[in-house]
Amino acid sequence: MTRPATPIDTADFYELEGLLSPDEREFLHRVREFMTSEVAPVVNQHWQRGTFPFEVVPGFRQLGLAGLPYRGFGCRGGSYLLDGMVAMELARTDPSIATFSGVHGGLAMGSIYLCGSEEQKKRYLPEMARLEKIGSFGLTEPDVGSGASRGLTTTARRDGDTWILNGQKKWIGNATFGDLTIIWARDVADDQVKGFIVANDTPGFSTAKLEDKIALRIVQNALITLDNVRVDEADRLQNANSFRDTAEVLRMTRAGVAWMSVGCARGAYDNALKYAVEREQFGRPIGGFQLVQDLLVRMLGNITSSWALCARLSQLQDEGRAEDRHSSLAKAWSTVRMRETVGYARELLGGNGILLEHNVGRFVADAAAIYSYEGTREMNTLIVGRAITGLSAFV
């Protein structure tokens, strides 16, 4: 049997990186090189231990990834298309690192960028863009996930020029070591959801790390308890006056999670392809067997279709025309295809697929979390269903 001289070693089968400008591609490739040389060698160890690789943060700082699509306030001012492909590139090496970046640069910085006053943006965003302050996003609660729009139990009560916050938040990434958290709470006076910038060292603010996770183990998720936490009116997000404003942030970051799911699938595919051309059985590489090629092509098709969907979504964001329905379809579709793809990769590796050293099992586990956060498939399906029928199926 004759081996191909140069097997394709990238999932960019339709050359979608060509949608970026030359400068953007150069930046994306610098991110790829950093992830390959500095992050990839340490992620399995940290994933196994459930620890965060603080040693790579200075490299992120030098790259200037935080708040990439925002304009002004020390941010790069790049396109949403570039931001999405960067999120994909991070997840391609490790979805936990992509989540760290998405929580800080997307959810936390995005809340201030979209809902903060000019003064708040000037005060917080430059330091966050330089990763001198790390942010978290506190929306989900122990008993409230998908029902956050109507069911938040964390309360905010105004007392003169301060607000008093009480309640709990759960699954809050970065909160165990971060500097500030965006807390979303229900104003007891008007029953509307409002946002607050809370320093993590504020009296009454405490965190407890969530242990024994089976996915995204590098992400430091916390249970936050707010016990009569006082926040100045100056740190209330001045343009967040209802859950509609919260939803603006989620619309943007949901697109980022769709991109992460493509990256997760791509990481599993990359490693499965490498394994297929190197692993020999019956005197030949298993990549030369028909059933193995079938698995690889299924994976590639899933990645390519999801990547193209996300690319168009980012173009709509750059044009200012993206709506909830667009982000929801991309997130719902891409995460389903991601779970299928990592499963195929695990299947291709056989028993070796469950060993960290082969860099597929980690993606299989992490895909379970990406599938659920930023809106489950079911919730996003109902958003799209409402858009195409004009009828709401929400209860």
From TrEMBL:
<protein>
    <submittedName>
        <fullName>Acyl-CoA dehydrogenase</fullName>
    </submittedName>
</protein>
<dbReference type="InterPro" id="IPR009100">
    <property type="entry name" value="AcylCoA_DH/oxidase_NM_dom_sf"/>
</dbReference>
<feature type="domain" description="Acyl-CoA dehydrogenase/oxidase C-terminal">
    <location>
        <begin position="246"/>
        <end position="388"/>
    </location>
</feature>
<dbReference type="Pfam" id="PF00441">
    <property type="entry name" value="Acyl-CoA_dh_1"/>
</dbReference>
<dbReference type="Pfam" id="PF02771">
    <property type="entry name" value="Acyl-CoA_dh_N"/>
</dbReference>
<dbReference type="GO" id="GO:0006635">
    <property type="term" value="P:fatty acid beta-oxidation"/>
</dbReference>
<comment type="similarity">
    <text>Belongs to the acyl-CoA dehydrogenase family.</text>
</comment>
<dbReference type="InterPro" id="IPR045008">
    <property type="entry name" value="ACX4-like"/>
</dbReference>
<dbReference type="GO" id="GO:0050660">
    <property type="term" value="F:flavin adenine dinucleotide binding"/>
</dbReference>
<dbReference type="InterPro" id="IPR013786">
    <property type="entry name" value="AcylCoA_DH/ox_N"/>
</dbReference>
<keyword id="KW-0274">FAD</keyword>
<dbReference type="InterPro" id="IPR006089">
    <property type="entry name" value="Acyl-CoA_DH_CS"/>
</dbReference>
<feature type="domain" description="Acyl-CoA oxidase/dehydrogenase middle">
    <location>
        <begin position="136"/>
        <end position="229"/>
    </location>
</feature>
<dbReference type="InterPro" id="IPR046373">
    <property type="entry name" value="Acyl-CoA_Oxase/DH_mid-dom_sf"/>
</dbReference>
<dbReference type="InterPro" id="IPR006091">
    <property type="entry name" value="Acyl-CoA_Oxase/DH_mid-dom"/>
</dbReference>
<dbReference type="GO" id="GO:0003995">
    <property type="term" value="F:acyl-CoA dehydrogenase activity"/>
</dbReference>
<dbReference type="InterPro" id="IPR036250">
    <property type="entry name" value="AcylCo_DH-like_C"/>
</dbReference>
<feature type="domain" description="Acyl-CoA dehydrogenase/oxidase N-terminal">
    <location>
        <begin position="21"/>
        <end position="131"/>
    </location>
</feature>
<dbReference type="InterPro" id="IPR037069">
    <property type="entry name" value="AcylCoA_DH/ox_N_sf"/>
</dbReference>
<dbReference type="InterPro" id="IPR009075">
    <property type="entry name" value="AcylCo_DH/oxidase_C"/>
</dbReference>
<keyword id="KW-0285">Flavoprotein</keyword>
<dbReference type="Pfam" id="PF02770">
    <property type="entry name" value="Acyl-CoA_dh_M"/>
</dbReference>
<keyword id="KW-0560">Oxidoreductase</keyword>
